[in-house]
Amino acid sequence: MSRSIIARGAALAATAVLALTACGGTDAEPEQQPEQGVEQEPAAEGAEAEDEAEDAEAEPAEGEAESAESEAEESESGESGAGSVAEGTVVEIGTELTDPDTGDVITIVSASRNMPTEYYKATDNPDGEMIYLEVKVVPGEQYGGVVSQQDFVVDDGGEEVNYASTADDELTAAGFEYFDGAPRRDGEATGFIPIYLEQAGETLKGAYIRPETEILGEDSSIPEFRGEFEIPAA
């Protein structure tokens, strides 16, 4: 498969298209004076009993506070656990690929693995996996056109598959920014690409592939570029 491309200089005279086919209180009662000859010890004992009762009531409250604090810490720890997102797991990649012919710099930032999905191929398939691949594109200045989401592939049991075209809605519903291609004229772009594997594995092989490309208006072409990366196990 090949594509066609037009140099940006030529695009000034023609439409540049690169078809490259991420307060108050209560009044206290007056204090009563004790009658003479009446011993106050029983009253004191009663006061001590009340104090002890109050202390006994305070202790469970302190215990409940400690328990609540402990639960809050556990909840916070669970929510901020490194590498988790929704019901999937984020793995860092950070592989940078530079296309020598176009000057595009493609970075495979991360992958969110084992994402929940209703993708049709996932029905009754316990061996499958939905991956959200995070990519960043910094285009070169020589050519126009688009870096496509279809150019990113992952090995699926010996076959390279690209984005799951009907899973973009569930990706955005989960709070991710969908990578809907990167027009070079718009500059840097980042987003996520949903890719479904019918045969998941631990460490996965992936690649960014720009096909052989013909330069429009010139009798020449640039060869295919392929840059590979690995997706770590979750």
TL;DR of this structure?
With 234 residues, the chain is α+β, with helices and mostly antiparallel strands. Helices cover 21% and strands 33% of the residues.
Please give a structural write-up.
It is a single chain. With 234 residues, this protein is of the alpha+beta class. The protein has one domain (2-22, 85-231): Immunoglobulin-like. It has three helices and 14 strands. The chain has helices spanning 8-11, 41-79, 168-173; strands at 2-5, 84-85, 88-98, 105-113, 129-138, 146-147, 152-156, 159-161, 182-183, 189-197, 204-210, 212-215, 220-222, 225-231. The model is unreliable at 12-44, 56-61 and 72-82 (pLDDT under 50).
How would you classify the helix and strand content by structural class?
alpha+beta
Largest sheet: 5 strands, antiparallel
Output the radius of gyration.
Answer: 33 Å
CATH architecture descriptor name: Sandwich
Q: Report how far apart the termini are.
A: 34 Å
Q: Ranges with pLDDT <50 over ≥5 residues?
A: 12-44, 56-61, 72-82
Count of individual domains: 1
SSE sequence, one letter per element: EHHEEEEEEEHEEEEEE
Number of strands: 14
Might you state the CATH topology name?
A: Immunoglobulin-like
How many helices? The count is: 3
